[in-house]
C-alpha cells in the first residue's frame, strides 16, 4: 500500500461519512414527504413523536425513529427537554413550503429515480447505447418536473422573461409562444397564467408527459388557450412564433444543433428564443468544487447523457456543456446574436436571436 497522509485520510473519511449520511437520508426523507410528516410539523406545529403519529394515524415507533433520523440529519429541530420536533423557518423552506425556491421534494425523488435506473445506465457504459427518456425509471419525468418546478415558479415570470429585450410588452399585448420540451407543462402554464393575452403551445416527444400536461391545463382552467402536443422538436410543423422557450432540455436532445436550426425556421424574424440551461463553467476544472456542479455532473451521467445517446446523432452535450459551447452551436444553427440574459444559482438564461 502506498504511503498516505493520515490527516488527509481522516478528513476524506469524514467527508465520505457526510456524503453517505446524505445518501442514507433519501428514503427516509421521501417517506416524510409522502406521509405528510414535514407538512404536519409546518401546519400544525411542533410535536412529540407520539403526537405526530396520532395526527397522521401512523405507527408511533416508526415515527419516533424517523424523527430522530431527521434530527440527526439536521432536517428537523429537536428539543430534548420537551422531546418535541419542529421545523425552523429555514428547514420549512426546503421541506414544507412548496413554492419556496429551495423546496427539494423533487430532488429526493430524482435521486431515487437515478438509483432505479442504475442497471440500464450500467449497460450503457458497457455497450455505448443510450437509455431512452422515460425508460430508465418508473416516473423519472415526474421527478424531473417536480425538481425544476420551484425554480420555474420563482424565476420565469419574475426575472427570466423580463431579461429578454423588449419581450414583456409583446407578451402583455398578445404573443404566440412555443414551449419546446415542455415536459409535464409547469413552465408553459406559469407563463400562460402571467400573460393571459398570449397563446401558448407546449411540445414534448414524451407522450406520458403531454398527457399530464393536458391534465394540468384542465386543472388550472387554461385548456382554452394552452394546448400541448406530442412532437419531437425537429418535427414541429407550426411556426410564426414571437417567442420560443426551452427549459433545461436542449442538452438532452440527440441532435441539439439540428433542433436549433429548426427553431430558427419556427421563429419570426424579430422573435427570440429563450434557452434555460443548467449553470455551468466553460472550463470544467474551474467549477468542480461547486456543490451545484457536483449535482449536475452526477445527474448528467445518469440521465442527460444516456437520454441523448438514445436518440439520433447522440451529441450527448451533457448538463454541463457551458455557455461558450452552446453559443457556438447556436451560431452555427443561424442565430447571430446570443447572450446570457440572466442567471441564478442553478440556471443560466440565454437569449438567441436571428
Secondary structure: elements and pairs:
Elements: H1 6-34, H2 37-43, H3 49-56, H4 60-73, E1 77-79, E2 84-86, H5 89-95, H6 105-116, H7 118-127, H8 140-160, H9 167-173, E3 176-180, H10 186-194, E4 199-204, H11 207-219, E5 226-230, E6 241-247, H12 256-266, E7 267-278, H13 291-309, H14 323-332, E8 337-343, E9 347-353
Parallel strand pairs: 3-4, 3-6, 4-5, 6-7
Antiparallel strand pairs: 1-2, 7-9, 8-9
Give a structural overview.
One of its GO terms (molecular function) is methyltransferase activity. This is SAM-dependent methyltransferase. Keywords: Methyltransferase, Transferase. Pfam families: Methyltransf_31, WHD_Rv2258c. The chain is globular, with a radius of gyration of 22 Å. It has two domains: about 5-95, Arc Repressor Mutant, subunit A (Orthogonal Bundle), CATH 1.10.10.10; about 105-354, Rossmann fold, CATH 3.40.50. It is an alpha/beta fold. Helix 1 (about 5-35) packs across helix 4 (about 60-75), helix 1 (about 5-35) crosses helix 6 (about 105-115) and helix 8 (about 140-160) packs parallel to helix 10 (about 185-195). The model has no long low-confidence stretch (mean pLDDT about 95). It has helices at about 5-35, 35-45, 50-55, 60-75, 90-95, 105-115, 120-125, 140-160, 165-175, 185-195, 205-220, 255-265, 290-310, 325-330, and strands at about 75-80, 85, 175-180, 200-205, 225-230, 240-245, 265-280, 335-345, 345-354.
Amino acid at each position: 500500500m502506498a504511503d498516505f497522509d493520515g490527516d488527509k485520510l481522516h478528513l476524506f473519511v469524514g467527508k465520505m461519512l457526510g456524503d453517505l449520511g446524505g445518501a442514507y437520508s433519501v428514503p427516509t426523507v421521501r417517506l416524510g414527504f409522502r406521509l405528510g410528516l414535514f407538512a404536519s410539523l409546518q401546519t400544525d406545529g411542533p410535536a412529540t413523536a407520539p403526537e405526530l403519529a396520532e395526527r397522521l394515524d401512523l405507527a408511533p415507533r416508526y415515527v419516533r425513529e424517523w424523527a430522530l433520523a431527521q434530527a440527526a440529519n439536521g432536517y428537523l429541530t429537536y428539543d430534548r427537554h420537551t422531546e418535541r420536533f419542529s421545523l425552523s423557518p429555514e428547514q420549512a423552506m426546503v421541506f414544507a413550503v412548496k413554492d419556496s425556491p429551495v423546496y427539494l421534494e423533487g430532488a429526493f425523488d430524482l435521486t431515487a429515480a437515478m438509483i432505479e435506473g442504475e442497471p440500464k445506465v450500467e449497460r450503457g457504459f458497457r455497450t455505448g447505447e443510450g437509455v431512452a427518456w422515460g425508460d430508465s425509471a418508473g416516473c423519472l419525468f415526474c421527478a424531473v418536473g417536480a425538481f425544476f418546478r420551484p425554480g420555474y415558479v420563482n424565476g420565469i415570470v419574475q426575472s427570466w422573461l423580463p431579461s429578454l429585450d423588449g419581450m414583456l410588452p409583446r407578451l402583455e399585448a398578445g404573443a404566440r409562444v412555443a414551449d419546446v420540451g415542455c415536459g409535464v407543462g409547469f413552465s408553459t402554464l406559469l407563463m400562460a397564467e402571467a400573460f393571459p393575452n398570449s397563446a401558448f403551445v407546449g411540445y414534448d416527444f414524451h407522450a406520458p408527459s403531454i398527457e399530464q400536461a393536458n391534465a394540468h391545463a384542465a386543472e388550472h382552467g387554461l385548456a382554452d388557450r394552452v394546448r400541448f402536443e406530442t412532437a419531437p422538436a425537429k418535427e414541429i410543423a407550426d411556426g410564426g412564433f414571437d417567442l420560443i422557450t426551452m427549459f433545461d432540455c436542449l442538452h438532452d436532445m440527440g441532435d441539439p444543433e439540428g433542433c436549433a436550426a429548426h427553431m430558427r425556421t419556427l421563429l419570426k424574424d424579430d422573435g427570440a428564443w429563450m434557452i434555460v440551461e443548467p449553470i455551468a463553467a466553460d472550463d470544467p476544472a474551474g467549477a468542480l468544487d461547486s456543490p451545484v456542479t457536483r449535482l449536475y455532473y452526477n445527474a448528467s451521467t445518469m440521465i442527460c447523457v444516456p437520454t441523448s445517446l438514445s436518440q439520433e446523432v447522440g451529441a450527448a452535450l451533457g448538463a454541463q456543456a457551458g455557455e461558450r459551447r452552446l453559443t457556438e452551436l447556436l451560431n452555427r444553427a443561424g442565430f447571430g446574436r446570443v447572450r446570457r440574459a440572466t442567471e441564478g444559482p442553478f440556471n443560466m438564461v440565454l437569449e438567441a436571436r436571428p
